[in-house]
Amino acid sequence: MTDGECVAFLQWALPRLGLRWPGFRRVRGQVRKRLARRLEALGLPDLAAYRARLEAGDEVEWRALDALCRITISRFWRDRRVFARLADDLLPPLAREARARGAPLACWSAGCASGEEPYTLALLWDRVLAPAAPGVTLRVLATDVDAAVLARARRACYPPGSLRDLPAGWADACFTRAGDEACLAPRLRDVVELRQTDLRRDLPDETFDLVLCRNLAFTYFDEPGQRAALARLLGRLRPGGVLVIGRKERLPPAELLTPLGDGLYRLPGVSAT
What is the reported pTM? Predict the structure, then answer.
């Protein structure tokens, strides 16, 4: 399979999955390797034969292809500037509002992959924010459509490279070595609830003070899918809450949101000061 053949196939297939080719341009190598393995498993000679199978209406294979197109690149403290702004400016007033309600500070990581993002929130709370927010607990819901990456998140053990961006001393304080991996302390794992959910179809019942949906919907979904995802996310965000998307992503028009820079947005409402 040449790169050109892969690109042509993805440009044909992705719109039929509600996905957009530009989001996959830089990560197509990951999908290309998966497609090659899938062709071998099916005993098909090339992408032309695979396309013919899909065009024949094989719904099972369309679902399999959708799974092959899930991108799972992540690491702890990814985009450190975003987490610094959350720690310094945005989470402290949200924590005060949660305390005034007598409720936990509720966060949702949508598209959590192997858990690095929601566990980063748990680390941030433990190392920085909790001492200044007595009486407030943190609760993080982490969702992903892929059962395999959620299984890795439940293990909470990672190669050293996944931790390389953490602030100095955090890895030693919050992880233990297990062979070639570093495993997150149980007290931090317990903060995060992992749940299999497809953002395109399902929603949690809860509402949240902070919602993170980074490098997922607004990179890979097509325009109707992005609008639908934004409506779903906002429907679960409390007034005054914060939405976080990828720093290089752009939202569909959303008059309700106040942009704060770096992929951060606030939903208008009253927050504690």
Answer: 0.92
